[in-house]
Amino acid sequence: MARQNPIRRAAVFGASGGIGEALCKALLTDSALETLYCGARQEVAVNDARMRPFSFDLMEETGIADAAVLMADDGPLDLIFVATGTLHDGFGQGPEKSWRGIDAGTMARALAINTIGPALIAKHMLPLLPRKERGVFAALSARVGSVSDNRLGGWHSYRASKAALNMLVRNFAIEAAQRSPNAIVVALHPGTVDSALSKPFQRGVTPEQLFSPEQSATYLLSVIDDLEPADSGGLFAWDGTQIPF
Ligand SMILES: NC(=O)c1ccc[n+]([C@@H]2O[C@H](COP(=O)([O-])OP(=O)(O)OC[C@H]3O[C@@H](n4cnc5c(N)ncnc54)[C@H](OP(=O)(O)O)[C@@H]3O)[C@@H](O)[C@H]2O)c1
Questions:
Q1: pTM here?
Q2: Which residue in 51, 95, 120, 132 has the fewest CB atoms around it within 10 Å?
Q3: pLDDT of 106-140, one tens digit each?
Q4: Residue 197 Cα, ligand 1 centroid: separation in angstroms?
Q5: How far, in Å, is the centroid of ligand 1 from the Cα of 94?
């Protein structure tokens, strides 16, 4: 795919996830790409000389800081993409259907992974955006993190953690603009994507509504390509439409 804004150096946090892995694959199809840092809890397999795998855990700031130091040695990044997240623990816990289901531990885990983890990545990675040229920091959020769009309720911890992430993205966008006028910091909604995260909740989703990770990754890269500094601080869906907070 020919991009108006070539991505030469990129970092993906969550390269082992459904969307994160597809995003790495899509980035690697681009001949303009020189280096791709692929981060996951367990290092991903290297099948392209441009891949630089690293390991990190959202619960451990030092690992994130170390990864950023390593990347900083090679210069600024055109794209920093946070593809991590959680909706359920894989053992039947979450998301809540009612306030009666609220559990402090489950809620704390959602906030740690969906909000605090990406914030720590931003803390260490935002300084790696270029000072003059265009650079994008994108974090996968979700439409259900929009307060104004919430008509169904439920999923308390997930919604709250994504709403808080959206607020942080807006905050970081304001701060990043003071450092670089061409910095773009956004939250993205990938659509409903066939992955481990959405698997238990796909009933009622039509085949047309359910994207493959590859489809979603292609859409998201196209949205990123079209973003301008004026878009910084917003939440954008897979089709480029802005979702109000
Ligand atoms: N799928 C959808 O329909 C959908 C819809 C809206 C929004 N989203 C958002 O999109 C993002 C990615 O979702 P997905 O569908 O690709 O889910 P996924 O396949 O379950 O991937 C989740 C990713 O998060 C990583 N992760 C979880 N806990 C971590 C931790 N403590 N430290 C480091 N990495 C951790 C996982 O790493 P491991 O492989 O090590 O577990 C994995 O790479 C999430 O933020 C989700 O909320 C997805």
A1: 0.98
A2: 132
A3: 999 999 999 999 999 999 999 999 999 999 999 99
A4: 6
A5: 15
